[in-house]
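Tutorial handout. Part one gives the primary structure; part two gives the three-dimensional structure as tokens.
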Amino acid sequence: MQKQHDIVIIGAGIVGLSIANLLAELPLSIAIVEAHEVAEWNSEEYSLRVSAISTASQQTLTKAGAWPHIAKQRISIYSDMRIWEKAINASEALHFSSNDVGTESLGCIVENALIRSELKTSLNNNELHKAKITWYCPDQLSSIEVFETHAEIQLQSEIQLKAKLVIAADGANSVTRKSLNLSEVSRSHAQFGVVAQLKTEKPHHQTAYQRFYDQDVLGILPLANGDCSMVWSCSQTKAEKLLNLSDEQLGDEISDFNQGILGDITVAQSAQIFPLQLLHSRQYVSERVVLCGDAAHAVHPLAGQGLNLGLLDAAVLADVLIDAWKANFDLGDLSLLRQYERKRKGNNVQMMTVLDSLLAVFQSTNPVLQQARRFGMGLLNQVRPLKNTLIEQALGLKKL
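Part two.
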């Protein structure tokens, strides 16, 4: 059985659903292929996986019709961020504040499940959009074959889809990318992320905290109910050790590591674990296929930029495709898709390089580099223009 569409989106994560919403204004038939049902957001408790959403990402989600509804449900604004390393005390931390750049906040902490749920709702609640969208879920790509005028996608259900353009938004382990043998630069950080929800003795004051200590990075993010969300990046051995601790023991470990900056800590939701990796596809595009989000690039969560990069991909790709449709261009033409690649690849590479370099600097045991690191952090704290530039880049208001 073969079904024809203008565009097939592989993956109904946040990036894939954002693209679907952004393109739904066009009179096109759009198919979404997703292996798992999009779960309803549970308002009764916080999801463990959260993201720091920048100003630029909020603008993209607004265009996608989801942000106003997300903001009404549950967002956690953070206005300050403090970063320090093992050789200094928390009181000497590098401090970033929204007041320095005249904004209300540095961003919002939002549950991934809430964003995804509202993006799906945005599609389903608009009757014009809903009529253009066909879901193949649960289903998965089995193989893909590209021809001069179209691509053919074989699904595991034995349904065959035919489309002018395939958008791969199916994550770091993208089946689409692998099926097309698109080469990638990939390496494990030899680390895992341990996530948990915490109750703290002291108020977080809408401040995000991050401490580097040898190979470990501990991030604590403020939640609107007064709790905090934690991501502890560490070796697999350390991660497994943390998971095997009782909730009380884990709370003590977190408090000790963070130098008691939030007082006694209680684990509100038991910890979970996920692997970390760096990945970058050498090609974002090939004839009739384009990669977006983690399918094209995956970064370390130390600066919370992974999803923001993916949403920038979605925004730029949608703009390119909408302009192309208005000019009556073939949406799958390689020269057209390369416009998107040129606009996003360089910026993503720069951000990935910066993040990987920062991680290497903070994890270095070289005494000279450690001394230079401490001096640099102290200097940066005093040089407000440079600090403000870094804040604006994180907000998505200025390019690298």
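Part three, for discussion. Residues 18 and 233 are 28 Å apart (CA to CA). The chain is about 35% helix and 30% strand.
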